[in-house]
Each structure stands twice: as structure tokens, then as C-alpha cells.
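Continuing from the previous page...

OK, I double-checked the sequence for Aldo/keto reductase against my notes and this is the correct one:
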Amino acid sequence: MVHSIKDTYTLSNGVEIPVMGLGVYKNTDQEELKGAIETALQAGYRHIDTAAVYNNEAGVGRAVKESGILREELFITTKVWNTDQGYEETLAAFERSLEALGLEYVDLYLVHWPMPGTYTDTYRALETLYDSGKVRAIGVSNFHEHHLETLFKECRIKPVLNQVEYHPHLPQKALKEFCGRHDILLEAWAPLKRGGLFDHPVIVGAAEKYGKSPAQIILRWDIQNGVSTIPKSVTPERIKENADIFDFELTNEEMQQMDTLENGERMGKNPDEVTLESFE
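Thanks. Re-ran it with the corrected sequence; updated C-alpha cells here:
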């Protein structure tokens, strides 16, 4: 049972990751970014999730350094972007990210998308970085089962985590079960579907029952499903609200009702259809 935002899941290599983090996707306004991270850290968050393509690693690094919180108490994730994939290219991209962040190491480094023809070489670079001690854990993002099976055949170290689009419309049950069998933690991006589920009667009903917001109900569903979650917000009130989900518990019946909302609808791209051109 998870009791606090400071509680953790234990990854397969023994590293502990907070059950919830702050996502900073598309947050490039420096003052807004700094304010969001300050609010999150004050509210108890210890995980900040960024990526090279977000163009805010330097701002994240400055904000966490100025927070005064000990580095070992923080968990920082970043990701290698599609145009930097390949073995040598990824090693170079990581050094750029590390310099931008102003850190000596990253807690979790992910392959952002399974780019055809390069993602196995990219992942081998992550293994090298892990061996060097510059990364405490390595994983992937937006990988289907077959992408993971390819890594299992061609790489030495299993990913500890797979960050995917995950919300009641897209719970990815088969992928979650597959990851569970292989001791890979599932982590949710766009867990709130950018507000696209807030008016659903099942969620509204639960929110009214517990005196919570629809967002809090969805994030609680994530946590009770054993999923790490990284809601993105720059609004101080919402950042605090998202963290306030540890004083109630959805019943088994309510969890099952949430499961009936699945319709396969995505906010992002299908990982099987990604190309460099599809992100231009």
C-alpha cells in the first residue's frame, strides 16, 4: 500500500523510484518552469521527468540545484531523442544532457521512442552508460511488447521501466502484464489525458464521493494499479492537488468501473508508426 508521495517502487536493479513525479513536457518558460519545480518539491515531489527534446534540461538542473535539496534525495529522468539515436550518437547526446542538467549522474535514462533500425544500438549505448556509473537505471519509453522482445534478444540488460501513454482510455493491459512478467515497471505519461476524461460520469461520481477532483481520482487509479505516474502541470494549485491522493482508496468495484472506460484512444503516436518525419 502506498501512503505518501515520497513512497517508492523498487526497480529490478534495486534502485528506488518515487511513485509520482512532475512532468515538464513543453515547459520552456524559465520562470514558469522554476516555479513549477519549486512548488512540486515543496509539495513533496522528488522525481522530475524531462527529456532532451523538451529543451528545458538546463532549467530543470538550475531549479533542482537552487532548491537546496540533497542530490541523493532527488530522482531525475531524461531521454535520448529520435534524431540522436544510434550507439555513438546516443553517447554524445547523453553528455550534452548531463552538461545541460549540470549533474554528475542521471537517475534514469530512457530511449524516447523505438526508432526503426536504431533503437537496439541506442539501447546498447544506455548499457554502456549504466556500466560507467553515469546512469543509475536504464529503460525505454513508448515500447510495445515486440520492441522489448527484440531488446531481450540483442541486449545484455533488461530495461527496468517502460514509460508509455497510460490512462483509463488506454490502460494497455496486455503490455502492463507483459512488463510485469519481466519485472519492468510501467510508468504513465499523459495520465490525465490532458483533461479528456474529467467529465466522465464514472470519474465524476467517484470524485464527488471522496471530495476529490477528477484528476485525483485518475491518479489514484494509477497508483492502485502499481503504475508510476508523472502528471504534467505548471499551475501551483494543480501540482499540489495532484500530490494529494494518499488519504483515500478506491474500492475494488470502483477500480473495475474505471477499467470499463478503455476504448484504445491515444493522445500520442502509435509506437509502431513512428518515423523521424512523423515528429516534424
